[in-house]
Amino acid sequence: MTEKVYKMQLENISKSFPGVKALDDVNITLRAGTVHAIVGENGAGKSTLMKIINGLYKRDTGRILLDGKEVSFSGPMESSEAGIAMIYQELNYFPELTIAENIFMKRQPSKAGYVKWREMMDQAQKILDYNNLSYDPKMKIKDLPIANIQMLEIVKAVAFKAQVIIMDEPTSSISDKEVKMLFDTIVRLKEQGISFLYISHKMDEIFKIADDLTIIRDGKSIISGPISQFTEDSIIAHMVGRSIENIYPKVKVPIGEIVFEAKKLCSERTFKDVSLHVKKGEIVGMAGLVGAGRSEVCRSIFGLDPLDSGEITLSGKPYVPKNVSHAIKNKVLMITEDRKKEGIIGVRSCRENITLASHRVRSGIFMNLKKEMKEATEMSDKLKVRFAGIETTIGSLSGGNQQKVLLARWLMLESDLLILDEPTRGIDIGAKLEIYNIMTDLAKKGYAILMISSELPELLGMCDRIYVMSQGYITGCLDRQDFAQEKVMQLATRSEK
Amino acid sequence: MKEIIKPNLRKYSLVLILLGMIGICSILSSSFLTATNFTNILKQVSIVTICAFAQGLIIISGEIDLSIGFLAGMAGSFACIMFVATGNLFLAFMFGLLLGATVGAVNGLFVAYFKLPSFIVTLAMQTVCFGIICLYTGGQNIYKIGNFKVLGQSKLLGIIPITVFFMIVMLVITHILLKYTKFGRYLYAIGGNAEAANAAGVQVCKMKWAAFIVSGLFAAIAGMVMMGRLNAGIPSEGGGYETDAITATVIGGTSFSGGAGTAFGTFLGSLIIGVLNNIMNLLGIDSYLQMIIKGFIIIIAVLADSFSKKQKSSIKIMASTFDVKK
Amino acid sequence: MKEIIKPNLRKYSLVLILLGMIGICSILSSSFLTATNFTNILKQVSIVTICAFAQGLIIISGEIDLSIGFLAGMAGSFACIMFVATGNLFLAFMFGLLLGATVGAVNGLFVAYFKLPSFIVTLAMQTVCFGIICLYTGGQNIYKIGNFKVLGQSKLLGIIPITVFFMIVMLVITHILLKYTKFGRYLYAIGGNAEAANAAGVQVCKMKWAAFIVSGLFAAIAGMVMMGRLNAGIPSEGGGYETDAITATVIGGTSFSGGAGTAFGTFLGSLIIGVLNNIMNLLGIDSYLQMIIKGFIIIIAVLADSFSKKQKSSIKIMASTFDVKK
Amino acid sequence: GCSSNKDASVTSEDKSTTTSDDANKDADSSKTEEASTSGDSFKVAFLPTDMSATFASWLATELKTAFETYDDMSLTVMDSKGELETQLSNLETCVSQEYDYIILLPLEPAAEDDIVAGYIEQGTPVMMINLDDFGVENASSVIANPFDLGTIVAQYAMTQLADDANVVVLLGPSGNTDSIERRRAYEEVLFSKTNITILDEQIGDWEKSKGMELMENWIQVHGDKIDAVISMNDAMAIGAYEAAKAAGVADNIKFFGVDGLADAAVAIDNGEMTATALQDAKVMALDAAGICHEILTGENSEGFEKIQIPVTLITKDNVAEYIERYTDNGMITK
Ligand SMILES: Nc1ncnc2c1ncn2[C@@H]1O[C@H](COP(=O)(O)OP(=O)(O)OP(=O)(O)O)[C@@H](O)[C@H]1O
Ligand SMILES: Nc1ncnc2c1ncn2[C@@H]1O[C@H](COP(=O)(O)OP(=O)(O)OP(=O)(O)O)[C@@H](O)[C@H]1O
Ligand SMILES: [Mg+2]
Ligand SMILES: [Mg+2]
After folding, report:
1. 8 A C-beta contact, residue C190 and residue C197
2. Chain A contact for C25, CB < 8 A?
3. pLDDT profile of chain B (326 residues), mean per 10
4. Which of these, B263, B180, B172, lies nearest to A365 by C-alpha position?
5. What residue stretches are annotated with the ABC transporter domain (chain A) (predicted)?
6. Planar angle of CA C315, B195, A45, nearest 5 degrees
7. Which of B48, B133, B140 to mutate to probe the D interface, most D CBs <10 Å?
8. Best of A266, A296, A456, A468 to mutate for ligand 2, by most ligand atoms within 8 A of CB?
9. How far is the CA of C201 from the centre of ligand 3 (A)?
10. What is the DSSP letter of D29?
11. Residue A2 has pLDDT above 60, yes or no
12. Max intra-chain CA distance, chain C
């Protein structure tokens, strides 16, 4: 294959949604056997572009060339027949079906329309084994935590003979170990001539894996070229139109007394003997591998999941989590991990989503609509949410902007303890900085913040202390002066208490 | 500009459909466009509309209530019995409400707390309600209900039929409930995404339970008005109202998947069906042909609304985009 | 351990409920546990079970089909008319199937391609179906259908009632369709997550459309068997089957939110209701009391199943957790 | 108030011990004699159309009362909920449970004839009550002919209406035998013999509310042209009356129904309705129980008997009698 023929060329792609020009004359060329990273702010149009390639959306104008030949897919079926596989940003799975069927959907081994179950199970087992995943392929996928589902999505995309694999933020909810597995796979497949379009908001990943890079801003492809042309700063500058000096705006704030303390928390099957505390003004991180149990601990504190034993005190007063509204009354707040499932009310407006938990915009049992509008607008302005208006349904926002709306919901409330589970998942670097700034402000105001993140740099950059969990136990706690990536990883992989 | 276009374009689309129908009907029949005929239509839709408000609340919260019709029949008939026995209208009314709330609470208990599918629970409660009243009356209707009929046959200020009055009151109550109270807001959230609502501190079970109780109360009111209008306690008359209520609700733009819908839309949906039934009778169309026509016109109404809705969302977003940009 | 507990505990739980009921019934009535009584029960549930298979397909794909009952009534009656006119049973049967497929295709068109709520579309088609047959017959039933009755009254091999035979054949067909064909698996995928199915390349519209056509075909078969059994073409007899079918389907573990359910479960659900109706008649329980009891027992059955399901999933997770750790 | 017939609940049975005996007897045509001498109680089943329909539940109550006077017969009621399929299922159950006699209030006599004939041949005697098309030769029948019911009201209506009167007609559900037969009587007796104009004719599904709604619309279109409402049952007629009253035109309109139950009696007494026809469930029940007993005990050697009970016209002249009766049996409260 000569250098001249590209694996895929996107020429002058434009796409409008009612009222929004999502893509405006985008050009991208993908070389065979390479990883082409696409970066841009939240709502820049990356996912839309990928969906157009995949045939899920119809483009308004432009051409797509695959191996030099113009193609036009009327739907994902045709694109997958043409050898394009895609991992969607919002996970798309069939909760009631087995792992095997989720992997093989639309590709079931079959004869004359009949599914060959045994063969499918065997192949699924092989795929799982090959990827060192120890699940039973007959298990229903709804019983898996989100990170594992994401791993399966990845496995699924690479398991079949695709020539082009599109990955839309594949690593947004998995930790370094899995990311490494993913990258190993990508490198292996690259050698076989398979090409990748790779969307991510994580700079370090992009420099690790990408060969080429395109930056999209406001629906336009701003600049494109080999990764060597770029530096982190230049990418950021292109993306957000300004440069960002220090992405982690950590400020030393005076740390007060203990606000939140948990002793020996246990929950059947998921975690044991978890003791931790957070002080006023402190940002405490929780690190660990996928499935370590961090989310579970926080969910129990927030009253979302049952807690079997253990004691919790809030500013010295005993607190027994009952349910979420009880937690909110006690000024314990949490932004959940799975935005789509446990975050947004997709069909309702941003305004209603922002004020859902707020008592401030009500008087008695009645809503104070004026106040609601005012406060919701203020909050979304503050977080720089990008939407067509506060009455837009939240479901039509880009992933990152949905996350900001959720953040706005909780920032409407007073809190003693604010728990953030993967708060920057799917958030662009500019917005991340906003969120970090907000966290810093909150810490200054005396909030106690507990943050779960699978992005170590973020934890190392923002936290005062980090608890590390492994297999349901807390294996260690590091103070800021002891922070080091290796130490965290070491604790995270330790299997004994 | 935003201010003009934005509020409730969906409602406008229904209003347009309704106005279009009224226009066509006026041409088709000279008896149509008269005050008495409009009063008739309002009277005829009033009971089903009250049921539809109840159904609307439930559908918005993502469930369904099939017990409404027979619950109305039961509560209405028992209220008649109570009135015949005591002669006290207030007491009878309260008794009817109590029954409605009780059945609603049972429905809600199974649906909200035991997480059973509302379709089955309320379907089962339907036969239970009917069984209870039949068991008590031995399958006979209650005649000579005397002054109980003021609930359905009197006129306020000499001109407003009381059934219409009840309907309007319920419209206002439902509208306030949905739009201006925390309860209403929570119902939308629960219907939109129950898990997310829970994670935002909404007490999903309690709210759903409350919604079923409210639905039961509404159904009981509809039942008592119904028996008043019929001037008799006829339990079986309630049957079928739940389905008509669903139809009105859905034509009115309430989404079956929950999380969307308004009281005013439901009212319009109900009026559309009322006008349809009315004009077909005015024209003396053959009963069988009526069934076919009605079926297709309902589909067309939903279709028209669904198209205009697509249209709407684009206008709405555009309107607010301009707003943002300026 | 895993191997023993895992496969189909849900089905087992229904089998257990059914066995429990049979046990209790045998104690309550000595007439219950006899071959003829069991044949009766099977005969009595057969038509509604066929409707329930149709409903099951649709509910699994996340929709609902309320037209089944009257479609069965219409297709069955027209098949009778065709038979009376031509004397050709095969032709009559094919004609019935054609009608079923046509109505199914219309339903599917509006639901799948125009994205209208299936509840309303199929409800509207219900009255359309009934209107069409009534218009044709002038509201008269069709008597003297001669040999058409072999479809409902004959016996295979001298012992198997033909309605039961039809039911078993449909059970097998539905089971194969759902479990072993791509079409079936796509229906689960669509019902489970239509967006994801679309993204995975499943042709959602086409499959839904096909599902409605299959449902129409099934309903037509049920209708023809029904008229054979009734020995007359009585269009109105179809009414209500759609609801009974839903009840059987949901008791049988089909999830209303779509994406889950089996043919065998539906069959069991239908049997549970059949046994319930049968025993109450055997015991000569008062009709009104029957309604109340039936309502509550249906709720209890769903409740029991829902508990066992929760039990199951926890066992299952434990089982696979062990698996992972070893 | 209306609950007086609650306690007349179904007789409980305790004769499960004799099933094998009965099975033997089944084959034997002389079984009835054996049974009577042994003092066993006969199991009789009543299969009504729909227990939530007023007439069916009244008939059930009257039958229960009538059977209580016999200590060698017990009655079980199995509801068909208005569905023919259910009625056929119940027939199957009765036969396989070896009931000695089946009283069938048929939903569709024409469709059920063959099946009934088959059961009689196998040895279970059957009686058609209230409705019969006489399709089975050796089935008993105690009926009030729906055609006759229509006829007597129609004849009376002829005397009450002008020859060129304008009427509106309310029908029962599509395909319903009662509605069809009553309507046929009107056609033959009244409409074909006079110059009466039918302004409109619609299905009201037996429901009072539908009668009301249709009438409201009719008054709207036809104004004071309507001279009479011809309804195939009373509930719809009374509904139409309520609508007419509300519109202030009730005094100029005559209302004819059929059924003759409590509501109609009250309405006629109040001068609201003009006439209705009664199929007397009490007479029917007494006759049915008598015939049933005769056949079971062998007094009737033929094995069946067919009688037609008279239908009665109720007008304001004789309504007092019925008011009294319904007050006595609790169907009307004071
Ligand atoms: N289905 C839709 N309907 C209307 N507008 C949409 C739809 N999908 C996307 N948009 C809009 O198109 C724009 C681009 O969205 P897109 O999801 O492509 O952003 P993105 O670059 O992937 O952002 P993120 O990094 O947050 O995922 C946004 O303004 C979004 O609101
Ligand atoms: N729904 C569930 N059912 C059964 N087990 C679960 C479920 N969700 C999580 N688990 C188990 O609980 C453990 C902890 O999962 P959790 O999601 O809390 O991990 P985590 O540390 O938050 O990791 P991450 O958030 O990065 O996925 C894992 O062993 C997982 O298998
Ligand atoms: Mg995106
Ligand atoms: Mg987590």
Report:
1. yes
2. no
3. 45 84 93 91 95 96 95 96 94 97 97 93 95 90 88 87 96 96 95 93 95 97 95 91 93 88 94 94 90 93 79 42 32
4. B180
5. 8-243, 253-496
6. 115
7. B140
8. A296
9. 20
10. T
11. no
12. 72
In a domain, C31, yes or no: no
Residue B89 C-alpha, separation from nearest chain D C-alpha, in angstroms: 17
pLDDT band at D27 (very low <50, low <70, confident <90, very high): very low
Report pLDDT digits (tens) over C211-232: 999 999 999 999 999 999 998 9
C256 touches chain B (CB under 8 A): yes
Is C234 among the domain residues? yes
A278 pocket-lining for ligand 1 (C-beta < 6 Å): no
Domain limits for position B140: 44-301
Residues in chain C whose Cβ is within 8 Å of chain D: 29-31, 34, 36-37, 40, 43-44, 47, 130, 134, 137, 139-141, 143-144, 149, 226, 229-232, 234-237, 240, 277-278, 281-282, 284-288, 290
Residue with tokens 């995270």: A492
CATH of residue B226's domain is 1.10.3470.10
Q: pLDDT per residue over A408-463, tens digit each?
A: 999 888 888 999 998 888 788 888 888 898 889 889 988 899 999 988 888 999 99
A349 Cα: distance to centroid of ligand 1 (angstroms): 16
Asked if the interface predicted TM-score (ipTM) of this complex is over 0.85, the answer is yes
| Cβ–Cβ < 8 Å for C52, C270 | yes
pLDDT band at D131 (very low <50, low <70, confident <90, very high): confident
Say if C291 is an interface residue toward chain B (CB within 8 Å): yes
A373 in contact with ligand 1, CB cutoff 6 A: no
Structural domains of chain A, with CATH: 6-243 (3.40.50.300), 257-493 (3.40.50.300)
Q: Which two tokens stand for residue A388?
A: 């067509």
Evaluate whether D129 touches D143 at the Cβ level (below 8 Å).
yes
Q: What phi and psi values does residue B151 have, to the nearest 5 degrees?
A: -65, -20
In a domain, C6, yes or no: no
CB B191 within 8 A of CB B267: no
Beta strands in chain B (DSSP E): 155-156, 160-161
Contact in structure between B203 and B82 (CB atoms under 8 Å): no
Q: What is the mean pLDDT of residues C83-97?
A: 95
Query: Residue D175 and residue C235: Cβ atoms within 8 Å?
Result: yes
pTM for the predicted model, two decimal places = 0.89
Q: C-alpha distances in angstroms, C130 versus C52, C80, C187, C234, C239?
A: 20, 15, 29, 11, 9
* Average pLDDT estimate for D151-177: 93
Beta-carbon neighbour count of residue D224 at 10 Å? Answer: 12
Contacts of A330 (CB under 8 A, 6+ apart): A314, A319, A416
Q: Is A355 in the pocket of ligand 2 (CB under 6 A)?
A: no
What type of residue is C58? Answer: I
- Checking C13-19 for CB contacts under 8 A at 24+ apart, the result is C13/C304, C13/C305, C13/C308, C13/C309, C13/C312, C14/C251, C14/C252, C14/C253, C14/C265, C14/C268, C14/C269, C14/C272, C14/C305, C15/C268, C16/C308, C17/C272, C17/C301, C17/C304, C17/C305, C18/C268, C18/C271, C18/C272, C18/C275
For the stretch C21-35, pLDDT in tens is: 999 999 998 888 888
How many structural domains does chain C have?
1
Establish if C293 belongs to a structural domain.
Answer: yes
Report residue C298's pLDDT band, with 50, 70 and 90 as the boundaries: very high
Q: pLDDT at residue D16 above 60?
A: no
Residue A396 Cβ inside 6 Å of ligand 1? The answer reads: yes
CA distance B248 to chain D (A): 18
C-alpha distances in angstroms, B157 versus A176, B46, B50, B165, D176?
76, 18, 22, 11, 43
Distance CA D18, CA D69 (A): 23
